[in-house]
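Objective 1b: paired records.
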Amino acid sequence: MGSYISGYLRGIKRIYNDKQPAGMEVALMPTTLSTTVRHIYDRVPNPLNSQLIADFHSYMKDNITSERHQNNNLKAIIAFAEFLGPDTTFPQLTTSDQITKFLDTKMKADILDPDKRWITTWNDYLVRIKHFFRWLQNENAKWEKSGDAHYTLFSTADWKTPVFADIKTKRTKRLSPYDDNEIWDLEELKTVIKYEPHKRNKAALSLLWDS
């Protein structure tokens, strides 16, 4: 199946505020990065999870990502950590339902959201959580042996998604603004990744692909 990458990127710019009247789409109220970073410690109930989120933030800063990117990723992971509570750590997760139970809290009844706009929020959280677990699994495998005792940097484009986090995004029945010939198939995506010079962009394209 094709990947609606461009449409998805457009869609995640807006989310729903659960406290707003049914069916009303609103812009996400801005939260500064410094405030979000503080929430790593005052909202996450498990200390190991707090430390791992802080390490993930350091990774994003080291890779010179934008503050907006950092902020949105951190907010999603903090919310997930709050859902897990004080007794479950990220490394203990082994099944996809431990993630989907959280994602399903973003669902809305058809009578409240007949267009199923909540799917945008569901998918947004999934992509950010999947990115976090890709980092967590591969962080300790930054280097792979090459030749006689020589090591080369393990590219993020080669990172593998943990099986339990390899969850497909939800499809919506809403009409796509793209024609079939505008949607990349898998082979086209592989070609684009092959010639993309920046490793971070390669990783982003791989992550957003929904096979």
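Objective 1b, second protein:
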Amino acid sequence: MGTNEKIQLLLDDYEKASGQCINKEKTSMVFSKNVDEGLKTEIMQLWGGSSTQQYEKYLGLPPMVGRSKQRAFSGIKHRLWQKLQVWKRNLISQGGREVLVKAVAMSLPTYAMSCFLFPKSLCHELEMMMARFWWGNQTHGKKIHWARWEKLCAPKFRGGLGFKKLSDFNLALLAKQGWRLLTHQNSLLFRVFKARYFPNCSLFEAKIDFNASFVWKGIFSALPLLKSGCMWRVGNGRSIRVVQDSWIPGCSRDEVQGAMEHLNNEILMVNELIEERTGWWKIDVVRALFDPRLANLILKINICLSEEDSWFWTSERSGSYSVKSGYKVLQWEASQILGEGSRVLHIRDKGGLEMLTTFFVICWALWYRRNQFLYEKVVHPCSTVINNALSMQSAYKQVQVLDGVSKQVNTVLSWSPPPPGFLKLNVDGAIFPDHHKAGIGIILRDEKGDVIAACSKLEGDVASPEFIEATTLLRGLQFCAQWGVPKLVLETDCLILVNALQSQTTFLTDFAFLLNDISRMMRGFQEVQILHVNRLGNIAAHQLARNAWNVEDIVMWWGSCPSFVSQAVWLDKNNVM
């Protein structure tokens, strides 16, 4: 009774503070069989409510899930059955059935699956109901199933229909709840779960108790999926353990632990590898602790001591977890268990377009390495060959305009002069993977197309093409701020960067710190417009970026441009493509 009285005092305080009163007529209580009748009467008199045998559903979900999970979620199965019976009475084409299955049938359990882990038997029953509707007709309740449901759940480019496997979709939805716990550690939900289930460790190190709640069991089941794709983004390095955590792009946690077995039992934090005075890595310490490959990967990581360390999801450009990307990760992992034997064709059958493209790029790089050995007597390490191939593939993808994304922004096909009163800044980046360097090109022009200033600058090694593009934009803004430019039009051929700066979405990727710096710099101008330009409209900046390899640090031209850029500038000025 003492606990009930304290809860009632808290609710009384809430009523006084908010002005909202509890409706005691609608208050009901469920008691277990072990509660004494006298105690039941006292509690009901205290609360002014009534006793009931079971809870009513709230937002279609059971407030309490007992031992029988099938009975708790039977309402979802019944609602799906009712909809399927209505659809069967109508003349619906096969294409219409596909739309109904995807848009309606599979959306029915989505809300419940985002909160609870469904039994696999229930997922199987729901899938079989959808399959019978898909293969059946109006006169017969069932027809021959010419393909397994797993085959229909494959993507269309792999011969399926794109239906979802409900058990995997359930895990992807629950991983979203885990992502919220991971990234919102000041929330009440996180504090409650941490106090109850992992008070002395991190979320990924939590254990499951036999008496854990059904909600926590569901989130816990999705943690392996979340852990497989999450990585630390280095800020001040105080929250990241060097050996135990995943924080090096392009390197798994197991690889780091294998390379540093002598430190597996020690807790070494990443901030111990950072020089606080300069805000950069302790290069000698990094190269002494790690092998050359890992050391080079670490030295590519950008540091921002003013920011806290944070998590990001590696399968999304924005760095934020999405159910779509989580489901794709599960499908990819499932395809790796199929056991294709020793033939190479499984890359085509199970790898998808991305893996197939990577496979052929690496094949070309190996062939090129062979030619260099035969004709130039130069032997490159295999790790260098692989890194160069991946960098080349990433650079190629960077210059492609994606149909599904290009509609979000206005893409300029050729260079055009800025509006009156504005100056136009074109920027571009270039990567020199063989030399672990990068270059930036900047050119500022007025409304007549005349060059005000141009710049080529050599930068250090970078982790990704997006990173050097963001660095280039930041350097250009810094130069314009020094020159006192009031109104500016920015043009870059990096569509990802333009989308990131124009949208309100928070980016958590490796170049997110640069995006924050760019946004702060843009607020210092009277007016700034940022546009995406096609490669053909950014040739001058591209040539300046490629020229950065020929300079030691930085070269600038005032009131003119170098001879190797003059033709591109003339074509832009006269609008000739």
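The two ends are 83 Å apart (CA to CA). Residues 338-394 form one domain.
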